[in-house]
Design a protein that fits this description.
CATH architecture of the largest domain: 3-Layer(aba) Sandwich
Distance between the termini: 45 Å
CATH topology of the largest domain: Rossmann fold
Number of domains: 2
Helix content: 25-40%
Strand content: 25-35%
Shape: globular
Strand order of the largest sheet: 5-6-7-3-8-9
CATH superfamily of the largest domain: P-loop containing nucleotide triphosphate hydrolases
Largest sheet: 6 strands, mixed
């Protein structure tokens, strides 16, 4: 049997009840979606189903499942993808020949054989998610439980992974996915379940249609920056490598100041690495100038009072033990008034979590705290790496609204890496990284 089910499931988390006597059954051999508001308890529910948490009351189906964490780094115990795969096979006690054959098959399915020996710490977020899915598939469970498996994946690889999951479902797998981005599911997903106020309900056909309609991405028409615009960053005879991999070679490029710029590119192309260069966290060759002055010439204290960054992994941003302390620390160096901060807290639905540890919040709530902390500071430049990951549609709109407010009120330069459509309307320019080169793109995107 491959049934995913629960009876009278009760669970509290940080003194807040997230499941209140849930009864549900997920259909066998089908691909189903689990949706719900940011912080509603979806990840907690998935971990209960995977036996990674024990419920306070109730029962879940006894079937073992392949599980993929929202943060793919939690999936790994070894240094490289190949080491991780061998570790999994050894725990399954397969012969070397059988293990090697399965590793090759799954790696080819996910097109990651070229990543086998690369340190996991050097992989992009999207590459890590493909490796994490491979690790889950190597367990060869009849059930797959996937928590935001495409949050950092570019559109082409997202569709590639969805097609693979569809084939696995047709071959008999039962698959349950948490995702806030509904693109690509309409023809593949048989059932959608919603977690709301501690209960699980299946959406009707009418409700499903309404949900898909509301999630339709809006296109944005981008202009090209004028040559006369002042540059926040400028690249000259610039070269960037990660290990032995050449990521970028740029003869010249100016990134205009005081605008929001969407930075896109395929997984592993070097987008996050470029943001790390702009924040003085990664070495490079050639020249990278901020406000006409080479980064190497900027004193660190002065530079970091000018440039802030929202990291791809939210927990990397936190320094204290509570949300309130994180906000207080930001206010010491920030530019936002207390009434503005209070309104952000309300809009992000974080007021009741001030005394909570940010590390124990949901992935989406961590993103909101991380974003709030950096918005409070009001730096002249804000670099944002996947700021919408884990956010529902309502919180995506709130994030975009406050980013627009910050850009306008502080004449802020924002460079935003995102594979999701919620920030298209915010950004004036579109910068594309492809074939080791950056170029501004004109037209619809």
């Amino acid at each position: 049997m491959t049934t995913i089910s629960a009876h009278n499931l009760v669970m509290s988390y940080q003194q807040e009840q997230v499941l209140t006597g849930c009864d549900f059954t997920i259909p066998d051999h089908e691909l189903s979606l689990l949706v719900g508001d940011t912080g509603s308890g979806k990840s907690t529910l998935l971990m209960l189903l995977a036996k990674l948490l024990k419920p306070q009351a109730g029962q879940v189906s006894p079937e073992l499942a392949g599980f993929m964490f929202q943060d793919p780094r939690q999936q790994f115990a070894m240094a490289t993808p190949l080491d991780q795969f061998i570790f999994i096979m050894e725990n399954r006690q397969l012969t070397a020949e059988a293990a090697w054959q399965k590793i090759k098959v799954v790696s080819r399915q996910l097109k990651i054989t070229d990543l086998w020996r690369q340190p996991l710490t050097t992989l992009s977020g999207g590459q890590l998610q493909r490796v994490a899915l491979a690790a889950a598939l190597l367990l060869e469970r009849d059930i797959l439980l996937l928590d935001e498996p495409f949050a950092s994946v570019d559109p082409q690889n997202r569709q590639f992974m969805l097609d693979l999951l569809h084939r696995l479902q047709q071959a008999g797998k039962t698959i349950l996915i948490i995702d806030h981005d509904l693109s690509g599911y309409e023809q593949l997903c048989q059932h959608i379940f919603r977690l709301q106020t501690g209960k699980i309900t299946e959406l009707t056909a009418t409700e499903k249609d309404a949900l898909y309609q509301a999630a339709q991405p809006k296109q944005q028409k981008f202009a090209l920056p004028a040559n006369t615009e002042a540059a926040a960053f400028a690249l000259k005879n610039f070269s960037l490598q990660r290990g032995q991999t050449q990521l970028l070679q740029q003869i010249a490029l100016n990134i205009p100041s005081g605008n929001s710029i969407l930075l896109t590119g395929s997984n592993g192309s070097g987008k996050s690495s470029l943001l790390q260069v702009f924040s003085k966290l990664l070495p490079y060759q050639g020249h990278c100038l901020y406000q006409g002055r080479d980064l190497s010439k900027w004193p660190r204290r002065r530079f970091f009072s000018e440039v802030g960054q929202v990291f791809q992994t939210a927990s990397d941003q936190f320094l204290t033990v509570s949300v309130a302390e994180e906000l207080q620390l930001s206010q010491q160096h920030g530019r936002c008034k207390s009434d503005v901060i209070q309104q952000m807290l309300v809009d992000f639905n974080l007021e009741k979590y001030l005394q909570h540890s940010p590390y124990l919040l949901s992935g989406g709530q961590q993103k909101l705290v991380q974003l709030l902390v950096m918005l409070i500071m009001g730096r002249p430049v804000l670099l944002l790496d996947e700021p919408l990951a884990g956010l529902d549609q309502a919180m995506t709109k709130q994030a975009a609204k406050w980013l627009a407010w910050s850009q306008q009120n502080f004449a802020q330069t924002q460079i935003i890496v995102s594979h999701q459509s919620g920030l298209n309307q915010l950004c004036r320019y579109h910068l594309r990284l492809a074939n080791q080169s950056l170029s501004f793109q004109e037209g619809l995107a």
